[in-house]
Design a protein that fits this description.
This protein is an all-alpha fold and 307 residues long. The protein contains 13 helices and no strands. The longest helix has 39 residues, at 117-155.
Length: 307
């Protein structure tokens, strides 16, 4: 594969689909604006200890190990909205990318260029699974610094001051972990992206409808015929299984002590990474199916010239 050609194709994708670039930036701007206007600074981390918050943060003030963990967890929680929005944008991009070039007949121009179908489809898959998530990660990394600066100013001199301590080592470690998560997510969602590209290259009309209709009909058929929901469970797991693994929610109930909440913080910190998913059979089965589906999409693009 020609690296220079692939770089040009990737540039083409971001140029023709500007929403891929703007969506993470807009999401980051909303997060920063929320930090400016809100009095809650912990993202998806909610702490309600029925008046015992001061005891918790007094403990964190001297417990630097758990203080770093809390710092990493709440900054990590800011990345989740970025990845979720990126996933939504990628869904519409993959459904549109091969369909629109047949609809506006630009496929005839691109087929006249010295670029193979495999390189074209590969660039679209790389954009969906790597380029957009990596851009979202980079934007979230910079946004986290801005959010922290805002929070540190607002929390200075308050009982929440331990949250306003910047831990460089924890921040760098968090960014490396989130980068690993992006790569794991690329493997996990590879079969989904290829399925959407398959719909995009084959549908004559309404690719979004054709992407939704077959799974819905299969779910209904299974439920009516066998009174089971295995297909629905499989689809839900493939769509949100990654975010289930990336569990950054810290739950605190009435009656919980500061010690129990600190243990919950440690639990969430251990779940910042998703490398454990690499040991799952269904991840690699999905990758194998994605490879097969990729060659199917390439063949279909070679045959299809119009919508």
């Amino acid at each position: 594969m020609n690296i220079k050609v692939m770089k040009t194709l990737l540039w083409r994708e971001t140029w023709e689909h500007r929403g891929l670039v703007w969506a993470p930036l807009i999401t980051a701007a909303v997060i920063v604006l929320t930090a400016l206007l809100s009095t809650s600074f912990t993202g998806s981390v909610r702490l309600d200890l029925d008046g015992k918050e001061q005891q918790l943060f007094a403990a964190l003030a001297t417990d630097f190990s758990h203080q770093r963990q809390m710092f990493a967890v709440w900054l990590g929680a800011l990345v989740v909205p970025q990845l979720f929005v990126a996933m939504i944008v990628v869904v519409f991009y993959t459904l549109d990318s091969l369909y629109i070039e047949r609809r506006d007949r630009s496929i005839l121009f691109w087929k006249s260029m010295p670029v193979s179908d495999a390189e074209t489809v590969g660039s679209k898959l790389a954009t969906a699974l790597l380029l957009v998530p990596l851009w979202a990660w980079l934007v979230s990394m910079l946004a986290s610094l801005v959010v922290f600066a805002i929070v540190s100013v607002k929390l200075s001199g308050t009982p929440l001051a331990p949250l306003a301590t910047f831990h460089l080592g924890a921040w760098l470690g968090l960014q490396l972990t989130m980068l690993q998560n992006v790569l794991v997510a690329a493997l996990w969602y590879a079969p989904v992206a290829v399925y959407l590209l398959l719909i995009s290259v084959s549908a004559k009309r309404s690719p979004f409808l054709w992407a939704i209709l077959p799974p819905v009909l299969l779910v209904i058929f299974e439920d009516v015929t066998f009174n089971t929901n295995m297909i629905a469970g499989f689809i839900v797991n493939r769509l949100i299984g990654f975010f289930r693994e990336l569990d950054l929610h810290i739950s605190a109930r009435d009656g919980d002590t500061s010690a129990s909440v600190i243990q919950e913080i440690a639990r969430s910190y251990e779940q910042l990474g998703t490398l454990d998913m690499l040991a799952k059979f269904d991840l690699w089965l999905g990758v194998a199916l994605a490879v097969i589906g990729f060659f199917v999409v390439v063949r279909l693009r070679r045959w299809r010239d119009d919508a």
